[in-house]
Design a protein that fits this description.
The protein is built from 13 helices and 8 strands. Helix content is about 40%, strand content about 15%. The relative contact order is 0.12. Helix 3 packs across helix 10.
């Protein structure tokens, strides 16, 4: 079929947007003989961002504007965590009455366990299920492949292959440490986040919003939601996100570093719903390491007030991402 599409495009090269071709399998592209190279733009459609779910897709990130966007609204704490459990897939957004655990379970069974396994001939279903759950339990942590291999009884190379599949199908986000030396970024230990926070919650067995917020996974869930929101904003604008984390040899860490045209945007993620100056402790410890490339620092938290914590550190509600 694509051969006919190519021929039709070649007879009308001055016309744009003749076809919109959709599909749910990024990996299928390599099985297609006709690539349409030079004639096609490939767009990634991730689950909906929070602002897209709220009907304000044009909302800008806080560092992209000099004034507060009037579209941002206060999100009640419980509603925010309900939205995390629901995730960002369109069907759950337009049909909030759907059985959310059943929908996520069905999605995992069909897409993860059938489609993805089929494309890479992953034979042992129970082993792959254990891998997904173990990966979810390690969300927002440094991923120790050797430890994971030992715990699951799976070879390190197999885990790497399965991670590459999940990344290629946009199911996970791999966050690498920030180094000025680009080569170092590629070899150091990364962190792993699920692209959809609802899938993450389902894999770790959470269905109650207060349990999710107050349980041991609360910080990882909120950090995943923040990372996912930032990545979706860039991808849905057609931009490649350059997002990392920062960790010193002494263990001081900044959760997110966004690199934009030579500028650095550091973001700390805090689960506390009440902003206070101690949230900026880690930031104040490493300000000298970033120099003049940083003009503003942010602490994102699940509250409803934008508040300065110091002259150059702002506590930012999740709703303003």
């Amino acid at each position: 079929m694509l051969q006919y599409v190519k021929e039709h495009i070649d007879t009308r090269r001055s016309e744009k947007g003749l076809y919109i071709l959709t599909g749910s399998q990024n990996l299928l592209i390599k099985h297609i003989a006709e690539s349409l190279a030079g004639r096609v733009a490939i767009l990634r459609l991730l689950p909906l961002s929070y602002h897209e779910q709220q009907g304000i897709p044009d909302a800008v990130l806080p560092w992209e504007t000099t004034k507060r966007d009037s579209h941002h609204s206060i999100i009640p704490y419980l509603e925010l965590w309900k939205s995390f459990l629901r995730g960002g897939y369109p069907e759950l957004t337009v049909q909030p009455e759907r059985d959310i655990p059943l929908w996520h379970s069905s999605y995992i069974q069909t897409y993860f366990e059938r489609d993805i396994r089929g494309l890479r001939q992953i034979g042992d279903l129970s082993l792959f299920q254990n891998f997904l759950k173990a990966l979810a339990a390690r969300s927002a942590q440094l991923l120790n492949l050797t430890e994971m291999s030992r715990d699951l009884g799976i070879a390190v190379n197999t885990i790497r292959a399965w991670l590459s599949i999940l990344e290629a199908t946009f199911q996970i986000i791999i966050l690498r440490p920030y180094f000025v030396n680009i080569g170092k970024r590629l070899v150091k230990t990364p962190k792993i986040y699920f692209t959809d926070v609802g899938i993450l919650c389902h894999l770790v067995g959470l269905s109650d919003p207060l349990h999710a917020a107050n349980g041991p996974m609360g910080g990882a869930i909120f950090e995943t939601a923040v990372i996912s929101e930032v990545v979706k904003a860039f991808v849905h604008w057609g931009k490649e996100p350059h997002i990392y984390f920062w960790r010193t040899s002494k263990g001081t860490e900044i959760d997110i570093i966004i690199e934009i045209e030579g500028r650095l945007i550091p973001i700390e993620v805090k689960l506390s719903s009440t902003p206070h100056q101690s949230m900026a402790y880690g930031i104040n410890m490493i300000k000298k390491d970033f120099g003049t490339r940083v003009s503003q620092w942010y602490v994102v938290y699940p509250g409803d007030i934008r508040l300065p914590l110091s002259p150059d550190v702002i506590a930012l509600p999740f709703s303003e991402l």
